[in-house]
């Protein structure tokens, strides 16, 4: 298990690196853990990559649907799902029972995507858009800021390099 908790290590939380399977994280009174279907809003490069990520299914989060605002993308098959119009989001959530939404849109479209997910009944949102979004108190929101994560790695890399140089100078 990761020595950092999920709040301190977003990538560990998201990618489930070094973490026990979902069933052991969330014990239930029954022997099976029900899946939590996911809908991805935004089917650009990041949305397509996320839709193909095997860890979602392994973690109990099968991708049940994809939506996008671009008419050139709507109707295409991506990772076994036909991309639907963002206007169909409410129907898709109702049909699939999705309770988790992933936002993989440009920053300019993120708040509208979040608002649509909330209006459709989604109660947990993972936001990859490079912007801050707001949700009602009843909705859980996690922000994944890849640029910040890279800056943190850069800081640690720089710190190791400084330590290595000072170690050579003194010893």
Write the layout of secondary structure elements.
Blueprint: H1 10-15, H2 22-25, E1 38-41, H3 45-51, H4 54-58, E2 63-68, E3 77-78, E4 81-85, H5 89-96, E5 100-103, H6 107-119, E6 124-127, E7 140-143, H7 146-170
Parallel strand pairs: 1-2, 1-5, 2-4, 5-6, 6-7
Antiparallel strand pairs: 3-4
Give the strand order of the largest sheet, numbering strands 1, 2, ... along the chain. Answer: 3-4-2-1-5-6-7
Radius of gyration: 19 Å
What is the molecular shape?
elongated
| Proportion of residues in β-strands | 15-25%
Query: Termini distance?
Result: 35 Å
Please report the number of helical segments: 7
Mean pLDDT: 84
Strand runs, count: 7
Please mark out the parts with pLDDT under 50 across 5 or more consecutive residues, or reply none. Answer: 1-31
Kindly state the percentage of residues in helix: 25-40%
**Structural class of the secondary structure composition?**
alpha/beta
| Biggest pleated-sheet summary | 7 strands, mixed
Order of helices and strands: HHEHHEEEHEHEEH
Task: Explain what the structure shows.
There is one protein chain. The chain has helices at 10-15, 22-25, 45-51, 54-58, 89-96, 107-119, 146-170; strands at 38-41, 63-68, 77-78, 81-85, 100-103, 124-127, 140-143. The two termini are 35 Å apart. The protein has seven helices and seven strands; from the N terminus they run ααβααβββαβαββα. The protein is elongated and about 65 Å long. With 171 residues, it is an alpha/beta fold. Helix 6 links the parallel strand 5 (100-103) and strand 6. A seven-stranded mixed β-sheet has the order 3-4-2-1-5-6-7, with helices on both faces. Residues 1-31 have low confidence and may be disordered.
């Amino acid at each position: 298990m990761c020595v950092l908790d999920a709040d301190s290590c977003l990538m560990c939380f998201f990618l489930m690196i070094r973490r026990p399977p979902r069933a052991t994280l969330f014990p239930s009174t029954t022997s099976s853990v029900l899946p939590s279907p996911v809908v991805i809003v935004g089917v650009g490069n990041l949305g397509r990559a996320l839709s193909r990520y095997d860890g979602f299914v392994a973690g109990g989060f099968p991708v049940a649907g994809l939506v996008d605002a671009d008419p050139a993308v709507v109707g295409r098959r991506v990772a076994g799902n036909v991309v639907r119009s963002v206007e169909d989001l409410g129907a898709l959530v109702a049909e699939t029972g999705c309770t988790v939404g992933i936002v993989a849109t440009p920053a300019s479209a993120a708040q509208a995507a979040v608002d649509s997910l909330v209006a459709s009944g989604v109660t947990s949102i993972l936001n990859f858009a490079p912007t801050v979004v707001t949700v009602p108190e009843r909705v859980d929101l996690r922000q994944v800021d890849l640029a910040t994560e890279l800056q943190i790695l850069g800081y640690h890399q720089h710190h190791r390099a400084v330590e290595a140089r000072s170690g050579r100078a003194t010893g």
